[in-house]
Specification:
alpha/beta, Rossmann fold, Dihydrodipicolinate Reductase, domain 2, five-stranded parallel sheet, 13 helices, 14 strands, 35% helix, binds nicotinamide-adenine-dinucleotide
Length: 378
């Protein structure tokens, strides 16, 4: 391993949900040093947070444009190489686009942009930039999710016929029933979140998990959304039927008002020979189901797992892998790509996953709006 990769952070301040996950994950495999940031739009808060976490303040900038301008003045070997974009959704596109145009690598939070059109523009920008781009569908980094992908690829399930991904949360319950509160949350504001709350925020993870684990593409969808108040018609719940092929069907179910649910992401894939089931809140168990044998439980770190899964574990079996490790595995893959080393294409979600995600979000909104009709993905 060479020198540490110079990482910049946009958003993810002390007031944020996701900032700590990226900061810790970037440090887990000793590949990155955080050298610059705009953690918050308010400069004082920005500098105060940098001091709090003990990062030198000389490259804490007042805003994103200044970060790009000032970093480009530095000699290449000192400059930020990759930026993590952890802001609310509407800022992902302008930030990621400008970063790519100026030669930076990008690690972007999901949903990658707020529209499909922006996603395609970003894809063109990346083709010209030829830098590394990752979308942090965090859960793909778990060793047992990687194991699912590899088992399916190796034919352990035979022909797949049913897929079912669920992402149930209940946190919007504490906000949605209060008129004042529901007008202040960015996830319920289409100008900041994009056209969907629930499908855009969490349904898209479930969608991505289906395509990541099966290696198949979802071809068409039919969505039925729910909102609870007329003054905020952003979806807070939805069910999407999916067709992957003539005889491969399933669903994505997502909710932010599933009372009492925390981060209930789960996925089940059923084939002619076996079924696989995995749950994010118990991520170290992968259930292998069969018609003629007792159910088996696969766990991380054992030699029976695939190379891709084993690459994502750092300690012997019995040391649980969690969400920080999962994100760290994505950062590890990105580090290898930036250094020009060999890596498995399952190590991190790419621009294509980002584009597919926006296609799914927009198509599900369209399907719901048109009265729950089938819509083909592009
Ligand atoms: N991968 C995952 O599992 C996962 C989980 C949670 C959130 N997310 C995504 O991460 C992103 C952020 O979500 P969050 O929950 O952390 O949001 P948040 O509202 O908790 O935090 C957003 C942060 O961005 C900062 N910010 C806002 N405008 C900025 C600007 N102009 N310049 C710099 N910083 C700015 C805020 O000050 C804050 O620190 C969203 O796109 C969300 O979808 C992904």
């Amino acid at each position: 391993m060479g020198k540490k990769i110079k990482l910049g952070i946009l958003g993810g301040g002390g007031d944020s949900l996701i900032g700590v996950l990226h900061r810790v994950a970037s440090q887990i495999n000793d590949n990155y040093e955080i050298v610059g940031a705009v953690f918050n739009p308010d400069f004082e808060a920005n500098v105060a947070f940098a001091k709090e976490i003990d990062i030198p303040t000389n490259r804490i900038y007042k805003d994103f444009d200044t970060l790009v301008e000032e970093e480009l003045k530095l000699p290449k070997e000192e400059r930020i190489q990759v930026c993590s974009v952890l802001t609310p959704n509407f800022l992902h596109f302008p930030m990621a686009k400008k970063l790519l145009e100026n030669g930076f690598h990008v690690i972007c939070e999901k949903p990658m942009t707020t529209t499909y059109e922006e996603a395609v523009i970003l894809q063109d920008t990346l083709e010209k930039a030829k830098t590394v781009f990752a979308v942090t569908h965090t859960y793909t980094g778990y060793p047992m999710v990687r194991q699912m992908r590899e088992m399916i690829k190796a034919g352990a399930l035979g022909k797949i016929h049913k897929v079912d991904a669920q992402y149930y949360q209940g946190w919007i319950n504490t906000i949605i029933h209060d008129k004042a509160k529901r007008s202040t949350v960015w996830r319920l504001d289409p100008k900041k979140a994009g056209i969907s709350s629930c499908m855009g925020d969490i349904g898209v993870h479930a969608f991505n998990m289906i395509e990541y684990t099966t290696g198949l593409k979802i071809k068409s969808i039919l969505a039925d959304f729910n909102y609870l108040y007329e003054d905020n018609q952003m979806d807070v719940d939805g069910t999407v039927l999916i067709r992957m092929d003539k005889h491969v069907k399933g669903l994505v179910r997502a909710s932010q008002v599933a009372t009492g649910e925390e981060n209930g992401l789960s996925i089940a894939i059923y084939g002619e020979k076996a079924g696989l089931r995995w749950e994010q809140e118990n991520p170290n168990y992968l259930y292998v189901l069969s018609d003629d044998k007792p159910a088996q439980v696969y766990k991380p770190g054992h030699a029976y797992n695939s190379d891709l899964s084993l690459d994502g574990t750092k300690l012997p079996p019995g040391h649980p892998e969690g969400i920080f490790d999962s994100m760290a595995n994505i950062y590890l893959g990105v580090a290898r790509a930036i250094r020009g080393e060999e890596y498995n294409d399952g190590e991190f979600p790419t621009m294509m996953d980002g584009v597919r995600g926006l296609d799914f979000i927009e198509s599900s909104v369209e399907s719901n709006k048109k009265g729950n009709v089938w819509v083909d993905l592009k």
